[in-house]
Amino acid sequence: MSLAVESRGVTVRVPGKINLELVVGPLREDSYHELATIYHAVGIYDYVTAIEAESWSVEVTGATAEGVPANGTNLALKAAKMLARRFGVEGAVALSIDKNIPVAGGMAGGSADAAAALVACEALWELQLTRDELEPIAAKLGSDVPFLLHGGTAIGSGRGERLAPVLARGELHWVLWVSPEAGLSTPQVYAECDRLREAAGIEVGDPTPSGALVAALRTMHPGEVGAALRNDLQEAAISLRPVLSEVLEAGTTLGAQGAIVSGSGPTVVFLVGTQAEAIDLSVGLAARGPAGDIRRATGPVAGAQVIQSVSPTGPQNFTG
Ligand SMILES: C[C@](O)(CO)[C@H](O)COP(=O)(O)OP(=O)(O)OC[C@H]1O[C@@H](n2ccc(N)nc2=O)[C@H](O)[C@@H]1O
Ligand SMILES: Nc1ncnc2c1ncn2[C@@H]1O[C@H](COP(=O)(O)OP(=O)(O)OP(=O)(O)O)[C@@H](O)[C@H]1O
């Protein structure tokens, strides 16, 4: 995307995330669940451009734009306004979002756009803030937003907003099954998880990340990482969307080394060993799996990054 030269603007690229591990603890008094999660940013991107403007606005285009609000409820616009309020910025911005991350798909697309809007506006307004300094505002916008500021692979605790880096060298190859139906609501999936636990008489304690996954991430061996994937919301997502169990089974039968629902779903992700295996699995799933959009991505990738900045003196491009 390129900007008109007469306007000052910044474009940020931001990835979606999956949760390699999502251990859901008890419901807290503030209505959030205590979590132990391992976030992993994957190379499916939204692009958020912030241009100096007289009044606040947002427009949404791109492959997955349908259903995304182009008004004050858009999380990216909320993020830009919150940053302006916090630092006494008087101007406004016109945001445009080029959307490719599945919507309500469990890949934190709205959170990604919010993180991107913070990074874009911070650069546009020359606030000189570090990512760590943006984190408290990010956490107010949503539990997943701080992670999308950083990307990579990281442990999340608290309600998911407290981050610690994980040593993960190398690259993982993923095949994604994206639901052709509407997405799932995150609060509904958490509520279904509570309901299923209550019905089964299951009481959970404080969540802790499993050593097995952290150890597997040190070698990045796909068989070991695949065997250690865990998502406590998976059963709830399947309960609300039964086709997901067929999707998981189809990918496993076709040779995936790991198969898991992403976050609150309904996107399903499969881990394979190489790019060639990813192509083979995509072809097999498209031919024999339940109907869905099949995509490929690698991870980990960086979080929100400025890729272009335009001023009256001309554009400046950044690699990323
Ligand atoms: C499913 C995940 O994507 C896994 O990373 C996140 O936990 C959801 O993160 P998010 O979409 O940024 O969620 P938020 O916007 O903070 O919260 C939306 C709703 O999800 C539920 N929620 C979220 C996070 C959490 N730790 N416990 C919860 O129960 C709550 O009902 C909350 O009202
Ligand atoms: N910029 C945005 N992009 C996508 N959805 C947005 C945005 N702003 C607000 N929304 C609203 O948020 C809802 C959830 O969208 P999102 O794509 O973030 O879900 P998700 O990927 O399941 O989230 P998570 O994985 O963080 O639980 C959408 O249905 C939409 O109404």
From TrEMBL:
Residues 74-152 form the GHMP kinase N-terminal domain. Pathway: Isoprenoid biosynthesis; isopentenyl diphosphate biosynthesis via DXP pathway; isopentenyl diphosphate from 1-deoxy-D-xylulose 5-phosphate: step 3/6. The active site is at 17, 144. It catalyses: 4-CDP-2-C-methyl-D-erythritol + ATP = 4-CDP-2-C-methyl-D-erythritol 2-phosphate + ADP + H(+). GO terms for molecular function: 4-(cytidine 5'-diphospho)-2-C-methyl-D-erythritol kinase activity. Residues 214-281 form the GHMP kinase C-terminal domain. ATP binds at residues 102-112. The keyword ATP-binding applies. It is an enzyme of class 2 (transferase). Keywords: ATP-binding, Isoprene biosynthesis, Kinase, Nucleotide-binding, Transferase. InterPro entries: GHMP_kinase_C_dom, GHMP_kinase_C_sf, GHMP_kinase_N_dom, IspE, Ribosomal_Su5_D2-typ_SF, Ribsml_uS5_D2-typ_fold_subgr. It comes from the Bacteria. Its EC number is 2.7.1.148. Belongs to the GHMP kinase family. IspE subfamily. HAMAP family: IspE (MF_00061). Catalyzes the phosphorylation of the position 2 hydroxy group of 4-diphosphocytidyl-2C-methyl-D-erythritol. This is 4-diphosphocytidyl-2-C-methyl-D-erythritol kinase. The gene is ispE.
